[in-house]
Every structure is written in structure tokens, then in C-alpha cells.
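pasting Myotubularin related protein 14 for the record, 359 residues
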Amino acid sequence: KLLELDKGHHFLPPSVEAIEKRCLELFARDYKYSVIHNPSGEVCGHYPRQIVFLEYESTEVDRESTVQITKLQDLVNRSKLARCRGRFVCPVILYNGKHICRSSTLAGWGELYGRTGYNYIFSGGSDDTWTESEEVPEDDSAVRNGDSQLFDKVRGHDIKLLRYLSVRYICDLMVENKKVKFGLNVTSSEKADKAQRYADFTLISVPYPGCEFFKDYKDRDYTAEGLVFNWNQDYVDAPLTIPACFTQNLNIDWTQYQSWDLVEQTQNYLKLLLHIINSDDESGLLVHCISGWDRTPLFVSLLRLSLWADGAVHSSLEPAEILYLTIFYFEHIESSDDTEPYNMVKENFSALKKKWEEV
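structre below
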């Protein structure tokens, strides 16, 4: 019934308010949290009206918060221009004190200049995004043009947000290094950043087909078995790139990834993500695709459901409640139309390797 209701995908405002209230109640069962208010999309037009930031588990009464909301909101406001559609790095799962985050990819120069100009005009000629208390470190180039300086500024803010959230690993699901439309680079990515601003992070390229391929999945009556992506298309230029430390213990032949059907590919990528978040006791993970609204919520949802099944997150929620929270807060309110997580949940995908039934 939840999935059938979600397919309607359109709510009147009172229904949205009721859903938001219910989602906040479900968050409060297990977590102390803060909220950044976003009623008209002022912070981001593609995120919920109340953006929840989990601080610590409710049972940890003496625990210090993992975030300070005033500092976090300042970093968010400064960094949001760095990413496509303003979908900034947003922590959405708190697992053993580590943040699992989602976002879109890095914005290209066209969107960046467009948004900075728009913000300048409609802020009355001022934009506090550029007000900075400390300088972004300069790189080694003696001479840099205006484009480079602008990218230094906005991506510097993005990097500060990532570091504040203790994110070390960035998992990029794009099948291209940069998204190209009509011969123009409309988005970029960390792996394509020429100045290597993200060199201090562990970049993991796990190309996964996007919404265009999901149409093929739908046309097959949502049957993913035997559905293999065509990796020989001209725009596909992002190779699978995974550090050896994450591939050694998974018993997966990664050289065969282009022959996997959608089920096997999804399963293996999920195993990889679970391995990453359990290999480091202190560092968080960012997952993103291009716009952050098809592949990103797919894998974030699978991670959430798997960790919930282990009792590692949202431990007090019943199956219907975790589905409600996943679908309506993380999917519906954020404009995702992806039902794949609920068709691919398997007993193999447990961070603690426990067997559990399909929700």
C-alpha cells in the first residue's frame, strides 16, 4: 500500500505536512536531531521542507553531538552552489557515529555562473555565500583565471562541509566523468576536477546506469534479471575505479562488471558500500550520481534498509515504519520516483552478515 500511494507522487500541502510530522516522529524514536527549515526551498528547492540532521542516538545521553547546527547551516549555505541543482552534501544516515551522506555531483561552470548571478540579483546586490572568515587555501599556480578562482571558492566551501562531516570516501555512480549536453559540460565530478582539489579524499568510481536505463527496466515490467547496460555508448567514459583495499575480501571479480545484469551489479555495489562503511571506525561516506535523485536514493535506501535489518540504525522501527520513512522522507518528498530498492532487498546485504526476511 505504501508503494501504491507513493506512485501517485503528488500531495496537497496538508498531506505533505502530515507526512513530515510522521517522519519526524519516526526519527525521534531513535535519534536526537536538529532541523534546517526549508519551507519554500530557500536552502535547496530539491530537498525536504524540513531537512533533518541526525546528531546522536537517543540512548547515548552523554554523547556529544556529531554536528553543531549553526555551524552546519553556515557551511551548507556557503557550499550549496558547488553542486548540481544546489543539492549540497547532506548527512542522511548516522551509523556508529559516522555520517553517510548524499548529494548531486559538482556543478559545471554554466550552472555555477547562472546561480551566482541569480543569487546576486535577487539578494539585492549582495550574497553572503561569498562572505568568508578564513581564506580558502591557494593552490600552487601563480596565475589563475576567473573560472579557476570561482571554482576554488565554491569547491573550497564544499570541501569544508565534507571535512566537517568527517567524510573521507566519495562514491561516484556516474557513468561519465562529466555530463555533456549539446557539446557543453553541464556538470563535473570530483574525479574530473583538474586542480585535484579532492585529492585528500578516497574517490571511488562505480559507474551505474541512470534514469534513461531505468526506462528499460520499467518497460520490462520491472524485471531486472538479464538486463545488461550497454557500456559501449559514446558518452560512457568513467571506468570502475576501486582501491585494492576494498576489493580483496569481497570475492567479486570486478573485471567482469560490464557483463553483470542489473541485479548482480546492484548486489555487488551494495556489498562494496557496506564493506567501506565498516572498514573505517571514524570516517563517513558520500554517495552521489548526477542530480542525486535516481541512483543516489537507490543505494542510500538499500544501505538504510540493510543497516536497519541488522538493528544498526532506526532500531526501534517496525518494517512498515522503516519503509514509510525511507519512501516518504527520503524518496517522495525529495522527488525520487525509484522503486528499485524495494525489489532488490536480499538477505545477502547485511553489514553484519545476518540473515533477514524481505521487508
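The chain has one domain: 2-138+145-343.
The first strand starts at residue 31 and ends at 37.
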